[in-house]
Amino acid sequence: MSTRAVLEVIALDAGDAIAAQAGGADRLELVTDMAADGLTPPVPVFAAIRAAVGIPLRVMLRLADGFAADDVERLVRVAGDLRAEGAEEFVLGFLDADGAADLAVVERLAAVLEGCRWTFHRAIDRAADREALRKQLDGLPGLDTYLTAGAASGVDDGLPTLAAEAARSGEPGYEQRIMVGGGLRLEHVPPLRAAGIDAFHIGGAARPGGWSGPVCARAVARWRSVLDGE
After folding, report:
1. Using CA atoms, how far apart are residues 8 and 17, in angstroms rounded to an integer?
2. For the whole prediction, is pTM greater than 0.90?
3. pLDDT digits over 28-43, tens only?
4. What residues does each domain of the chain span?
5. Where does the signal sequence lie (predicted)?
6. What is the signed CA dihedral for 178, 184, 188, 191, rounded to 10 degrees?
7. What is the rounded CA–CA span in Å between residue 103 and residue 136?
8. What is the rounded distance in angstroms from the CA atom of residue 90 to the CA atom of residue 207?
9. Contact call for residues 92 and 121 (beta carbons, < 8 A)
């Protein structure tokens, strides 16, 4: 395929970011505390990573594990602090008790981000109704990506859903790019590319030593090579 696929890599610090960029990552997702599935990094960590690399950075906006918004006022302040430090892209996603998008929180954060581009993360995989969630969020300023495995259990089970959603690209609620992540393996790439998906997100796959070790440029380069069809 002629379109270069986007490769996004999770980075916890400047060392991760430098290695990911060296391996061919197009973009980084910045988080801290992977034991809690990725929370908002401190502003100084964002600043250090921003100074270390030249590729786009998407910063997680989440203060506690899970998909319910926690301390919304603090979350709004943190988003404002990151914006003031120069953050221009973000990742967020919250559900209410019924499994629908927590529109009040998402809309408030979108307003703080003032048109910055952002990803709705894997909360979509826990939604009671994926299509209803997409319709809820349709038209929100800045939303350009859904990070999803297609299923809460991961890409193995989500492949049919991902292919079906990719086939609806351009329809209302389906204009956003699908970025696949969550149990993603290299063997998934060919069928996903064949379905028209052109964005991929890796975390543990970039760390041969596990989450206790750093991002490995060679591991990222392997993904870059496969995505480029080499």
Report:
1. 11
2. yes
3. 999 999 999 999 999 9
4. 6-227
5. none
6. -10
7. 7
8. 23
9. yes
